[in-house]
Amino acid sequence: LSFQHKVGVLYCKAGQSTEEEMYNNESAGPALDEFLDLLGQRVRLKGFTKYRAQLDNKTDSTGTHSLYTTYKDYELMFHVSTMLPYTPNNRQQLLRKRHIGNDIVTIVFQEPGALPFTPKNIRSQFQHVFVIVRVHSPCTDNVCYSVAVSRSKDVPPFGPPIPKSVTFPKSAVFRDFLLAKVINGENAAHKSEKFRAMATRTRQEYLKDLAENFVSTATIDSAVKFSFITLGAKKKEKIKARKEAHLFSVGAITWSVCTRDFGQSMDVDCLLGISNEFIVLIEEESKNVVFNCSCRDVIGWTSGIMSIKIFYERGECIMLSAHDNCGEDIREMVQRLEVMPFKTLL
């Protein structure tokens, strides 16, 4: 899991709609400056030691400043078009597009009078989600923003939902809403066919590298006996373990459960494992992983005497039942869930 995200910001002035026009806006207007001040902090790139999203922090080749912020456990660096180097007489502005064109999520900031946005005007293999933010009455006491989303068709929907016909006043609440939308948008895009395939290839290369370059030829001689020095008659005090200490383990704790396969309308015997990072269901008969999700994707749970429902991601749920009328297992699962680092942006 990555908790560092790079996000593009394209500036769209009144009367503009094309990629070229947006990339060629040399500097930010007051409305964009006001929005950027709400979104994050301007940071000097030279000597910047936190997440820099491929920006140059030594020689200013990618601009002198950028926009950076944190949200919950996430670091976000924004590739703002007007803060990246401007090249006169270069309509494509490749120094800017090299960064923003490789961002999965792009915020399109529209001034009043900007033409409607369409992703057909964007030429990029990576930009899969566009969050369009349109400002109304900028730089006044009544400034507010409307938000819309355009996503590639194989990117699943993601929260938080945008209320219909609602404008957001400039506030910390709107900032949190927008950052949550951006982060969830990138997480959703990784489930698209293109990024799933790329992730699979990357994992295959890592595994290949491990198998070819890090295999040890050393063997362990099981006949070797280890001798230990005894400390005479001194008796070591037994340390009494804290009650239910295992529930606080970093590693996985497992239970035998029965889960409902709604696709085939049948119950399946599984092993449920809950670690500090993941929840996993393994079918006992086939040993196949039939479900897994990050603890951070868990929204909540409800439990009865003999069953528990765990809700995750955008509201999906799995339903589990204990074996052999063992309600104690359900109680332990709830205790384990209560100490896990569950967090959600939904």
From TrEMBL:
InterPro entries: Rap/Ran-GAP_sf (IPR035974), Rap/Ran_GAP_dom (IPR000331), Rap1_Ran_GAP (IPR050989). Keywords: GTPase activation. SUPFAM superfamilies: Rap/Ran-GAP. Coiled coil: none annotated. The keyword Cytoplasm does not apply. Residues 1-210 form the Rap-GAP domain. It holds the Pfam family Rap_GAP. The keyword Ligase does not apply. PANTHER family: RAP GTPASE-ACTIVATING PROTEIN, SIGNAL-INDUCED PROLIFERATION-ASSOCIATED 1-LIKE PROTEIN 2. This is Signal-induced proliferation-associated 1-like protein 2. It comes from Ataeniobius toweri. The gene is SIPA1L2_3.
